[in-house]
Structures are given as C-alpha cells and as structure tokens.
TrEMBL record:
This is TNFAIP3-interacting protein 2. Inhibits NF-kappa-B activation by blocking the interaction of RIPK1 with its downstream effector NEMO/IKBKG. Forms a ternary complex with NFKB1 and MAP3K8 but appears to function upstream of MAP3K8 in the TLR4 signaling pathway that regulates MAP3K8 activation. Involved in activation of the MEK/ERK signaling pathway during innate immune response; this function seems to be stimulus- and cell type specific. Required for stability of MAP3K8. Involved in regulation of apoptosis in endothelial cells; promotes TEK agonist-stimulated endothelial survival. Residues 104-131, 279-365 form a coiled coil. Signal peptide: none annotated. Interacts with STK11/LKB1, TNFAIP3, IKBKG, NFKB1, MAP3K8, TEK, RIPK1, CHUK, IKBKB and SMARCD1. Interacts with polyubiquitin. Transmembrane segments: none annotated. Pfam families: EABR. Its main location: cytoplasm. It comes from the Eukaryota. It is found in: Cytoplasm. Residues 229-261 form the TSG101 and ALIX binding domain. One of its GO terms (biological process) is inflammatory response. Keywords: Apoptosis, Coiled coil, Cytoplasm, Inflammatory response, Metal-binding, Phosphoprotein, Transcription, Transcription regulation, Ubl conjugation, Zinc, Zinc-finger.
Length: 370
C-alpha cells in the first residue's frame, strides 16, 4: 500500500512539476526576449552614436565603436550560451525525473545569477559608451581653442595691413614734406640771387629778419622730417616683428591642429591622452596672445603719436607756406615800388637835364637881345 501510494503520489506530482517547469521555461523565454530587445535597442543606440561621431569627426577612425560593438556581441553570445545551458540543464533534470522543489530553487538562482551578470555587463557597456562622450567633449574644447587661435591671426593680419597702410601714408607725407622743403629752399636761393642781381647793397632790416626766420623754420622742418623718418623706421621694425610673430603663431597653430588630429585618432587604453597638459598649453597660449595684444595696443598708441606729430608738421608747413607767400607778396610790392621810384627818378633826371640844356640857350638869347 505504501508503495502504491508513493507511486500514485509520484504520478500526480509529475504533471505539477512539469507544469511548473514549463511555466519557468516560458518565463525564462520571455525574459530572454526582453533582454534581446534591450540588446537590440542598445545596438541601435550604438549605431546612432557611431553615426553622430562620424558626422562630428570626419577623419576619426571608428575602431573604438567597432570594439564596443564586438564586445556587446560577445556578451550577447555568452548570454545566449548561458541561457541555452540553463535550458539544457532543466531538460536534463526533467529527463532524469528530478521533479522536486530543488529544481525550482536552482532555476530561480540561475535566473538571478544571469540577471546580475546581465546588469553588470550593461554597466560596463554604459561605462564604455560614456568614454567617447568625454573624448568628444575634449575634442570639442580643443576645436574651440583652435578656432579662437585661428581668429587671432585674422585680427593680426588686419592690424598688419593697417600698419602697412599707415606706413605708406607716412612715407608719402614725408616725401611731400621733403619736396616742400626743397621748394622752399629753391625759393630762398632764387630770392637771394635776385637780390644779388639787383645790386641791393643795403637790404632792409625787415627783409633780413624775414630771411633769417625762414631759414630757421626750414631747419626746424628738416629736423622734424628727420624725426618723422626715425618714427617711420620704428613702425617698420614693429611691422616686421609682427610678421615674424604671425609666422611663429601660424606654425604653432598648425602644431595644435596636428595634436588635435592625433587626439581624434583611436586612443590606446594603455596610453591615455593628457588633457591637463593641453589645458596648460592653451592657457599659456592665451597669456601669450594677451601679451601680443598689449604690444599691438602700444604700437597703435605710438602710431597715433606719430600721426599727431605728422598732422602738427603739416599744419606747420601750411603756416610757413602762408608766411612765405606773404613775404613774397611784400617783396613783389617792394620791388614794384622801387621800380616805380627808379622810373620816376629817371624821368626827373631827364627833365632836369632838359632844363639844364634850356638854361644856356635862354642866357644866350638875353645876351644878344640888347
């Protein structure tokens, strides 16, 4: 009886165990499908991130993303193998006839262990996916710094062109001033020759004082011209220094671009990039750029001083031109007055000579008349 009851109990417990096993198998299949859906969603996310990275970094090698995809595929294959192993173990236990509560406990433990492993792999996948984002942020920062360094040469080129234009204008102004001084010297020489030809032995004191003042003004203009030439030479030296600085800065910017391209390449895990050194280098470059901007501002102030001196010299030249024109008008009027006086004196002398010739004739007629 006891054996019959045990046999009947075993026959009645077998369907229940089989039903429980089928339910567990169905639940494991559903969880496996959910995990497969999650893996597919992560594959889609990785593909989208890869497309974004390819759009942002045109020349970046996708080896890091390929490694991530291979690792995810390897994890998925391991999960499938483990799920298949768990199913085979369950079927093996069913075939062997082990239909007790230990099967349910072991199956639940296996499912929990697989879930923990899957969560761990998901955390590792998220950590690996977050690394390209940090690298992308660093690359973006470096690109922004390189763009700022690229805009700085454009500003320096504009400044150099303005300095070149100012230098050209100063040269033309100096040439005009030299021509004006030469013209003034020629006028003075012509005036002195005219005085020598006219035979003026005792010139008026006012004219002598005027000639002395004109000579002094011409000497002062020559001195100012020399100072302006020195300032123009100084500005040309500053322009040459700026050109050398632009060349060195362009070379350094090219080096930065090369380093940026090196950072965009796939990084080896055993040799990470030193972002702190790049930040220090960028800060040093910013400091150097500020110093050069201050030098440029100082050169601009010196150029403004040279421009003001040039304007003052031009005003002085215009004033001297007006004075020389006034002296010339005075000299012309004096010469006209002298010529008029000389012609009047000549007429009076001729008249006196005529009267002197007429006096003897009248005396002779008086003597013959009695």
């Amino acid at each position: 009886m006891s054996s019959g009851n045990a046999g009947s109990g075993g026959r009645e417990g077998a369907p229940r165990a089989a039903a429980a096993l089928c339910g567990l198998y169905h639940e494991a299949g559903q969880r496996l499908r959910r995990l497969q859906d999650q893996l597919a969603a992560r594959d889609v996310l990785i593909a989208r991130l890869r497309a974004r990275l390819a759009a942002l970094e045109g020349d970046t090698a996708p080896s890091l993303v390929d490694a991530l995809l291979e690792q995810v595929a390897r994890f998925r294959e391991q999960l499938r193998q483990r799920d298949g192993g768990a199913a085979e173990a369950a079927l093996r236990q069913k075939l062997l006839g082990s239909w007790g509560p230990s099967l349910l406990v072991s199956t639940q433990e296996e499912i929990e262990r697989l879930s923990e492993q899957l969560e761990e792999k998901e955390r590792e996948t998220k950590q690996l996916m977050s690394q390209p984002e940090r690298e992308q942020k660093e690359v973006t920062l470096l690109r922004r710094g390189a763009a700022q360094k690229g805009r700085a040469p454009a500003a320096s080129d504009i400044l150099c062109r303005s300095l070149a234009d100012e230098t050209h204008q100063l040269r033309r102004t100096l040439a005009a001033t030299a021509h004006m001084c030469q013209h003034l010297a020629e006028c003075l020489d012509a005036r002195q020759r005219a005085k020598g030809d006219a035979g003026e032995r005792s010139p008026e004191p006012a004219c002598a004082d005027g000639d002395g003042s004109v000579h002094a003004v011409v000497a002062k203009l020559q001195e100012e011209n020399r100072l302006l030439k020195q300032k123009v030479t100084h500005v040309e030296d500053l322009n040459a220094k700026w050109q050398r600085y632009d060349a060195s800065r362009d070379e350094y910017v090219r080096g930065l671009h090369a380093q940026l391209r090196g950072l965009q390449a796939p990084l080896e895990p055993e040799r990470p990039s030193p972002p702190e050194l790049m930040r220090k280098e960028i800060s040093r470059l910013n400091t150097q750029l500020e110093e050069k901007i201050n030098d440029c501002a100082e050169a601009r102030r010196e150029l403004e001083a040279v421009r003001r001196a040039r304007d003052a010299a031009l005003e002085r030249v215009q004033m001297l031109e007006q004075q020389i024109l006034a002296y010339k008008d005075d000299f012309t009027s004096e010469r006209v007055d002298r010529e008029r006086a000389q012609s009047r004196i000549q007429e009076l002398e001729e008249r006196v000579a005529l009267l002197q010739r007429q006096v003897p004739c009248k005396q002779s007629t008086r003597c013959t008349s009695p």
